[in-house]
Amino acid sequence: MGKKITHDRMDVLDTLKKVFGFQSFRPNQEEIISSLLNRKDVFAVMPTGGGKSLCYQLPAKIMKGTTVVISPLISLMKDQVDAARENGISAAFINSSLMPQETSSVFRSLRNNSLDLLYIAPERFAMPDFLKTLQNVPIALFAIDEAHCISEWGHDFRPDYLSLSHITETFSGVPVAAFTATATQKVQNDIIRKTRLRSPFTIRASFNRHNLFYRVESKRELKTQVLNMLRKYPGEPGIIYRTTRDSVTAMAGMLQDNGIKALPYHAGLTQEERKTNQDSFNRDEVHVMVATIAFGMGIDKSNVRFIIHADLPKNIEGYYQETGRSGRDGEPAECILFFGRGDIPKIRYFIDRTEDQKEREVALEKLYQVVKYASHNVCRRRQLLGYFDEDYTDDNCKNCDICTGNIEKVDVTIDARKLMSAISRTGQRFGIMHIIEIVTGANTKRVRELGHDKIKTYGAGRDRDRHHWRFIVDELLAQEIIHQDGDRYPVLKITEKGKKVLFGNEKVSALKKEEPKKKSRAEDGIEFKAYDTALFEKLRVLRKGLADQQHVPPFIIFSDRTLHDMCRRYPVTLSDMAEITGVGAAKLERYGEEFIKAVSTYTSENPEVLTTAKPSCASPVSPVRKKITGETIEKTFELLSQGFSIEKIAENRNLAESTIAGHIEQLIMDGREIDMDLLVERSRQEKIEKIFLSLQSWQLKPVIEHFNGSVSYEEAKYVRAWMRRKK
Ligand code: ADP
Ligand code: MG
Questions:
Q1: What angle do CA 399, 401, 402 make, to 5 degrees?
Q2: pTM greater than 0.85
């Protein structure tokens, strides 16, 4: 038994590398896959971008029979199938968009047992004929994607999903996995009950999206602020969320007028228009989608680099879902909220019109939490995760405006008293703007008419500007020292807590944030490695051309992450290319040469990039190097066959020994005639092989550590290549 699992794990890691081109698993993927391989049901809540597809696509490649994926979104199925095919997985889908002949052809492949992966829409499960067909072919597993659609408690209930309740009964020997990115405990229980999973292996992953940078800016001149943000991401995809259709239309127009490729998306457009706009966005033909929250689940695009909320969201759930659509590829992305208090009454207007009192209270509470998120000087990440009952314990997340800004704790008791005194002396009947005018001593008609220039606090805060006083108001609101009352014309009132500050000796302090001088991009916050942006532009064009030829979105060819990796490591041989994240065997074969050519052309035109690249940009696998041409491996093979030692070959060719070792590794894996015993002594080979198996990993470092350095990296590398070749 132990032995069997060992081999399974190696197979799994091999498949991860070979098919998907990834070096390691994301959190929980391996456990889920291992449960499925052991035919155990799975229920997993993982955030958007957590890598749920891999959890069933990898088993699909390994297990006997077809993996059947149930997915609610027809528009996504084609992309998913295209992406799987790009990785060399035999995949197809059946839904209402297919012509009858196409459908029969898929059924034929299914019956021939030649499909690894089959995507289907849920309504098929209500069709007895379809079920009969499925019962007559070997099924590896069922994966229910977007499983919250089965629950009335979820936000996207689909009655068709209820027909999935019989799946475990009808296919009693087949494991079933249910995946979702949104499930409260209540929804979770409901999903498990309705799908009748059999004591499933259950995962609730952390919702932390470490690569997303969260930022809040107060909304002042929205147009300028949005344009400034877009300037940081020229030509890169992003989404701007707005509340109303009119504001969507207006902003999309404004961006177009400014030469930015933008399109609108909202429920008022025809289905056709929406589809066209979404496709253009998916294919990187337009860069910015300005949308209402109607633009949602149907986006699997992995290279969305920024999300702008130009209006206040109604609740944190929605905000988190929307921001979650960025950075699925794991590369840095930025989520900015332009927060204006003027948006609060607009949302309250609708809440106040809700009939049901309970519903109204819940909505108000949710709104209040968003306001708190935006105005409280507490790590944004901690606040967001806290909302989902997740305890984020790091002191500094290094990836939000609070944690990366210069923050100083200042005593603001005196300012708080000045402000509250103005509120109190005017009978708690005025709004924010007016109170600030009094405190700053503004000489306006209204102030004079109301006689507010006569009160004691008039002009008491003249020494500071309006932004400062706005900051104090926001702080006091967030700390519940004052609150806003009334919806149309909200007025400021002093709370019980506030009275203790005004009349007692309670102190107030605030975290004052200094905006960094330079407008930084998301990746400046956390330790994301820099990449060559000029090369990225070139590769992006190449990717787009290939994508168009094949009628697929560019991110299906290679993700941004994969291109970024190339732009750090300048791969110029096939074995270099195979080490790039996201480059599996199928993509290596199909696109390897073309991308190598593009990189080589670029590096020969810009030779300085190879020598001036900062060491921190170079990866440990492939250090900054001289240009290596395609024949170079052959040369190594020739010299090796003539009996030269590695040192000699390196010396002779003026290359690093590690480079030669890399060539040899590739030659071994390619199945070339190489005498292993000359490279590593036979008995050592066996020992090293054993350790790889017992450590259940292809990583070199642990093996070296096991031998306390008496085995070299090269030796371990050769043995590893040999083991892989034998498979
Ligand atoms: P989800 O469905 O959970 O939102 P996806 O399955 O669409 O997420 O995966 C998001 C992205 O992460 C995809 O681009 C995918 O290729 C990538 N990905 C998944 N697993 C890994 C991994 N182990 N290493 C690197 N990238 C991964
Ligand atoms: Mg998904």
A1: 100
A2: no
Ligand with smallest separation from the Cα of 301: 1
334: in domain: yes
Ligand 2 centre and the CA of 145: distance in Å?
7
| Sequence-separated (6 or more) residues with CB below 8 Å from residue 244 | 292
Q: Is 257 found in the same domain as 124?
A: no
Instruction: Give the whole-angstrom CA distance, residue 131 versus residue 164.
Output: 11
Inside any domain, residue 75: yes
From 54, 61, 80, 302, mutation site for ligand 1 pocket: most ligand atoms within 8 A of C-beta: 54
**Cα-atom radius of gyration of the chain, to the nearest Å?**
30
Question: Which residue's CA is the closest to the ligand 1 atom numbered 23?
Answer: 25
Say if residue 499 is in the same domain as residue 643.
Answer: no
CATH of the domain at 482: 1.10.10.10
Say if residue 433 is in the same domain as residue 350: no
Q: Which of ligand 1's atoms lies nearest the C-alpha of 145?
A: 2
- Give, using CA atoms, the residue closest to atom 2 of ligand 1: 52
Is residue 522 included in any domain, yes or no? Answer: no
Say how far apart CA 248 and CA 230 lie, in whole Å: 16
User: What angle do the packed helices 713-726 and 657-669 form, to 10 degrees?
Assistant: 10
Query: How far is residue 43's CA from residue 192's CA, in Å, rounded to a whole number?
Result: 7
Ligand nearest to the CA of 302: 1
Q: Which of 177, 204, 231 is the last residue of a domain?
A: 204
DSSP string over 466-481: HHHHHHHHHHHHHTTS
Q: Using one digit for the tens of pLDDT, what is the confidence trace for 132-188?
A: 999 999 999 999 999 999 988 777 788 999 999 999 999 999 999 999 987 678 888
Q: 478: CA distance to ligand 2 center in Å?
A: 36
Closest ligand to the CA of 46: 1
Comparing CA positions, the residue from 96, 54, 60 lying closest to residue 75 is: 96
The CA 309 to ligand 2 mean position distance, Å, reads: 23
Render pLDDT for 508-544 as a digit per residue (tens, 0 to 9): 888 776 655 444 566 555 556 788 989 999 999 999 9
CA atoms within 13 A on the CB side of 491: 10
| Ligand approaching nearest to the C-alpha of 56 | 1
Taking only the tens place, the pLDDT of each residue in 381-432 is 999 999 888 889 888 899 999 888 866 778 899 999 999 999 999 999 999 9
CA quadruple 396, 401, 407, 410: dihedral, nearest 10: -120
Domain boundary among 544, 578, 612: 612
Identify the domain containing residue 400 by its residue range.
212-406
In a domain, 2, yes or no: no
606 and 714 assigned to the same domain: no
Which atom of ligand 1 is closest in space to residue 330's alpha carbon?
Answer: 12
Torsion of CA 352, 357, 362, 365, to 10 degrees: 50
Distance of CA 391 from the midpoint of ligand 2 (Å): 25
CA-proximal residue: ligand 1, atom 18 (nearest)? 51
User: Closest ligand 1 atom to the C-alpha of 48?
Assistant: 4
Instruction: List pocket residues of ligand 1, CB cut-off 6 Å.
Output: 22, 25-26, 29, 46, 48-54, 300, 302, 328-330, 559
